[in-house]
Structures are given as structure tokens and as C-alpha cells.
Amino acid sequence: MPKVFVYDAYTNKMMSYTLSERDPMPYSTGTTLRVKEFRGSSSSPTLWTTVAAMEAWNLTRRKYGAPIHVGYAFKRIWEGGHGTASQHYAGVAFDVGQGQGSSARNAIWTAAKNTGAWGYVEPQSMTPTWVHFDRRYGTPACSGTTSGYPTLRRGCVNTYVLILQDALNALGYSTRTLDGKFGANTEAALKAYQKRVSLTADGICGCNTWKKITAAVVGIGRTSTVIN
């Protein structure tokens, strides 16, 4: 039974659910998005997303008015399959419409764009055989870009903290838990990692730390220190 974390930015709280593969994703409408569809090819027993991403999905599905094939949504960072700053690892990105034909993909893209709910709907010229949209949030730690992950420090709660904890654990720097809450143990693990790679060991995950840690962990596969 998968565990699903859902971050609610309205209350700044992380919620968790234990669901079956055929259950609807929390906050999705009806059965338009089941857990097994959201997970895609991920084998993880733990998944995560946000209320805002599910609301954006609901709006898109309503505007399109028909089932949407989901090829890729969630991935854990050590599973790889996407770039080092992919929003799929935050559980807020969707690659959809594979195999539905160009007219259907055009209609899905238009529906997603017209909702105004997604932070980014990728130009169709960049995704000729699928449609990508994501509900990224926060200001990227690295300046001059709209992608990437925000600066994290003690007290933060969100799915980007889950990425950070997951990466640290996979690399052998234990946060003792995987809960999306940046506490003392996550800070200690981050400082230890920063010291090891010759970064300022301040316990703040900014641009340089994100670059180092994501480059080290993307696609390395499940290690013995991963926490579920």
C-alpha cells in the first residue's frame, strides 16, 4: 500500500495517506488520476505531490473533457529519468498524451495552457510526442532561471525538502526520516554533506548545494541507505 505525501501550501502542512494503487490521488477529481497512473514507472512505495498540482490537474482534465494518458509524473531523484532540476522529483510535473495522437495532444496542451493554473506548459515544439506541464513553486535558488529548486533551510516544509532528504539519505547522509520537514536531523545531514564536498557547511541548501547534490544523486539507483 503506497504512502502518499501531499503538501498544502495554503496551510504550510504536509499530509500523508496510505492508499492502494487503484485509489484516486488525494485532491484529484473522481477517478481521473489514480495512484498507479501518477506513479508511472516509479517503483517507490512512497510518493508525493501538492494540493496545487492536483487542483491544476482537475482544471485541465475538466477543460479537456476526456481521459488523459499519463506517461510520466512522479519519480524519486535516485530513480532518475529526468534532469537534475526536474519538477518530476517534486511530484508536481506531468508528461501526458503519449500515444493519443497529435490532435488530442494539441487539445490537451491548449486545455492546460488555458487553465492558467500551471507554472509552466512546455512549448509543443519541445515535446512533439507528449505534453509537459508542471506546478512548480517557490523562487529558484539559482538566479537567472525559472526552473530549479528553492533555497531550503531549517523550518521549511514542502516537497522540495522531500527531494533533499531523499538525496541525502541515498548518498549516505541520514536525515533519520523522510517527511518533508526540515528539522535538526536534516540540517545535520546537510552540513555533513556540505563539509564533505567542500561547500560552506551552513545547513542551507542554496544554488551551489543543489547543483552538487543533484549531480551526485540523479539516477544512481536505490542505495542501502534510502528511507521509505
Explain this structure.
The structure is a single chain. By secondary structure, the chain is of the alpha+beta class. The chain has six helices and seven strands, in the order ββαβαββαββααα. The protein has helices at residues 35-39, 51-64, 102-115, 159-170, 184-196, 207-217; strands spanning 3-8, 13-18, 46-50, 70-72, 93-96, 120-121, 131-134. The strands form two sheets. It has a four-stranded antiparallel beta sheet with strand order 4-5-7-6. Strand 1 and strand 2 (13-18) form a beta hairpin. Helix 2 packs across helix 3 (102-115) and helix 4 (159-170) packs across helix 6 (207-217). The longest helix has 14 residues, at 51-64. The radius of gyration is 17 Å and the shape is globular. The two termini are 12 Å apart.
Strand-pairing-aware structural class: alpha+beta
Q: Tell me the span between the first and last alpha carbons.
A: 12 Å
Share of residues in strands? 5-15%
- Individual helix count: 6
What is the helix content? 25-40%
The total beta strand count reads 7
Averaging pLDDT over every residue, what do you get? 97
- For the report, how would you describe the main beta sheet? 4 strands, antiparallel
Q: Which quaternary structure do these chains form?
A: single chain
Q: What is the C-alpha radius of gyration, as a whole number of Å? A: 17 Å
Estimate the global geometry from the Cα principal axes: globular
From N to C, what is the helix and strand string? EEHEHEEHEEHHH
Task: List segments where confidence is low: pLDDT < 50 over at least 5 consecutive residues.
Answer: none
Strand arrangement, major sheet = 4-5-7-6
